[in-house]
Amino acid sequence: VPASLWLGFTGHWGRAILLLAICAGVSTIVDNVLRPLLLGGRTELSGLVIFISVVGGVGLFGMLGLVLGPILVATAAGVLTVYMERPESPPITAR
User: Which end of the chain is more exposed for a tag (fewer CB within 10 A), N or C?
Assistant: First the structure.
């Protein structure tokens, strides 16, 4: 949005509208298509985390990152949740 505002203020209205449309399209695809498809609604991750994981996954793994990024982030979040919720075991004492 800031980049499209800058483009609009500098007189490039067509590019500003195109950039806004592309951003809206990517956001819609990630939130409404990729999130349910890849994660099946089984996660409590926000749309922003999913978007960042998709962008980071593409940056690290290329097109394969569209799938690997959200899966790795969801797995890490699940492991962290299980780790944080496990009961603390009593200390081991020597006999």
Answer: C
